[in-house]
Amino acid sequence: MNDFVLIIDIMIALFVIVIIAWYIHDKYVQRDHQLLVNYPIIGRLRYLFEEFREPFRQYFGDEKFYESKDKLDWVYKAARDLPNYASFSPSQPLPKPKFMLRHANIVLNENEVDTHFGVTFGENKKYSYHAKSIIARSAMSDGSISPEGTRAFVRGAFMGGFPINSGEGGLTSNFFVTHRNYNPSYMTEVHGTITQRFVKKVVQKLFNGAMAADVYRSLVFKKDPEAETYVFDLKSEVFHRPNWEAHLENFPEEVPEDMPDIILQLSSGLYGARDKQGNFDPDRYQKTMRFCKMTEIKMAQGAKQTGGKLIADKVSPAIAYYRNVEAHKDLFSPNRFPYANTVEELFDFVGRLQSLSNKPVGLKIVISDIENIEPYAKEIKKRIDEGNSAYPDFISIDGGSGGSATAPIEMMERIGLDARDSIYLVDKILTDYNVRDKIKLVASGKVLTPDDVIVLMSLGADFIQIARGFMMSAGCIRARYCSGTNGHECPVGLATQNKSKRKKYFVYKHAKYVRDYHNNLLKGVKGLLAVMGLSNISKLNRHRLIFVDADGKVHDNIDQVFKRRLDIGKDKEDEFYELR
């Protein structure tokens, strides 16, 4: 008993000594924090609370960035395929101004609504692309997203039968996780020894397949820095990755059936289609396009009007291999696309990509006003009149907000219009130039739920790309640590290259969540069409919408609403609306 009391006394004494030393350090030694000089020790609570502010923000306050927390809850429930009904009333009603949907007096039953939700890009191309869904996962680079996260998205897209955008990081090995029926002539294989396979089976029996694959990989590749550039097939027990050094004739003529529909995004860094010097490599581009359905040239993204930025901590040896760059160094792409010094030069490059791939090619842009889109419309019209087919098959319009990616804070909410304003404006200008039927419009920006999809498609979009919603379906808790700066890492392992965190990410579980989120989006769209009395999504147009302004006034003429919202000045107003 006496010994126990003595131990307690010693612990108390040590605690008092530490507190006194800590007090002296804060008040008389440190000169980094002014607050701690006046409030030693206790002042540190301020920094503790500040540290926890972002990851815990969503649990203790109303949702300010999205329209309502109910929409966020819808995403998480849809991903888990749970009933998505509210009782009594929304917990946080949509704020005004807002768009409303016109419902029909005599609604349809859901079985009367066409289940065809497809759209075709590049009808005049040899390999035109017929997307089976109007919804795609938007651009997320393998690099900003962890390898495990990319694999979950790829598996989810393959199971759900919807397209997936590669992001500017290009086509990496992780996009091949479902591709098993390959020809070794374009694939590099690595096999383990009998002993290594035996160890793998033991670990798999005792623990799980993910741990077994990691142990097996470490045994086979040892300290090879490019070990993670190989994907592992648990059934065949073979590691494989595309052999980009193989001759073009070895690659499949058409996209293999056991791969998802991939949209290759080509940014100013030209990743996935460049040589080691950073120049465009036609041969590599053609090889890459043997596995992709179409190409999206990224001119801009939401608030990120600068080139893509990947901090050194995220540039792993695997990412360096994929992008032909040096590992562990900041990777900042140029602001301007290298073949876009003029609109004419950009369209000529579009034509070059179309000739090399025989597939659709489009642009991703952000709109601030009419002057952002009119030069494109003029050049498209000019080339069509000349019989020149070198113009975009589609234009992706991103909303001018923070985006799911990392963007400079000074640009967020200051650059680019809302996605809805942008889509209306672009649809209007292309229609005025009589080229709208030649161009598909793709919309993205804060799209979470089926009503968001309906509003954008009513305003002119043909196709929707979603980033935030799919991120959340894949496990994102919106901690806002995606960039990896300031020592913070994504806590769920989705948007980090930190091995200790990402290795614990549940790939197969989240792949199912991704699939179910997409499926429930389409289910919700179908339900809304039925209530609106529309048998097919092609019957949507802006006259199916009503606008309620901030004062609660109802406007049923959407053209007049946008005339006020997009106040472009008297000098251009008459010209802009002359066809209305």
UniProtKB/TrEMBL annotation:
Transmembrane segments: 6-24
Gene Ontology molecular-function annotations: glutamate synthase activity
One BP annotation, GO: glutamate biosynthetic process
CDD domains: GltS_FMN
Keywords: Membrane, Transmembrane, Transmembrane helix
UniProt superkingdom: Bacteria
Domain Glutamate synthase: 125-534
InterPro entries: Aldolase_TIM, GltB, Glu_synthdom
Pfam families referenced in this protein's UniProt entry, alphabetically: Glu_synthase
Similarity comment text for this entry: Belongs to the glutamate synthase family.
Protein name (database record): FMN-binding glutamate synthase family protein
Species assigned in the record: Malaciobacter molluscorum LMG 25693
